[in-house]
Amino acid sequence: MTNLIEYAAASDEVRAVYDDIRTTRQTEYINNFWKALANHPPTLRRTWETLKEVMGGEGDIDPLTRELIYIAVSVTNGCEYCIASHTAAARAKGLTEKVRGELLAIVATANSTNRLANGYQVPIDEQFR
After folding, report:
1. Domain span at 25
2. Staple 93 to which of 42, 64, 75, 125, CB 3.0 to 4.6 Å?
3. What keywords sit in the KW lines (predicted)?
4. What confidence tens digit (pLDDT) does each residue in 86-116 have?
């Protein structure tokens, strides 16, 4: 198991990222994902900056939809940690169990039909180009 770097044991560089996470998310909590990445501060910093920009930055996709997309990709990739953390974030943004069920049905269907299309090597219709 990866060593989790707590705030008290963190370098100044890591603490600066932790402080930004706390400020941005308006919480004192630093989750285990960030504590694990803190083992390599450049990866921690780069990943936080990217996530902060993509998930919290300006754009036409609303915050709940961003979380739903993240959950869908995490389910497809089999990332239990990301499924749990982004489901919690989505619930805080209004996710209901009914919508969660619909989302998971879409993910399951897309994975199934994607595999069929790939397996059959279906040529793309001209009208879809």
Report:
1. 1-58
2. 64
3. Oxidoreductase, Peroxidase
4. 999 999 999 999 999 999 999 999 999 999 9
- As given in the structure block, the two tokens for residue 2 are 């990866």
Structure-token pair, residue 36: 């694990």
Neighbours of 14 (CB within 10 A): 23
Residue 28 tokens, joined: 């004192």
Q: 8 and 21: one domain?
A: yes
Quick one: tokens of 78?
């089999």
- Confidence category of residue 1, pLDDT binned at 50, 70, 90: confident
Question: What letter represents residue 68's amino acid?
Answer: L
User: Do 35 and 49 share a domain, yes or no?
Assistant: yes
Say which residues have a Cβ less than 8 Å from residue 26's Cβ, sequence separation at least 6. none
Cα 31 → chain centroid: 13
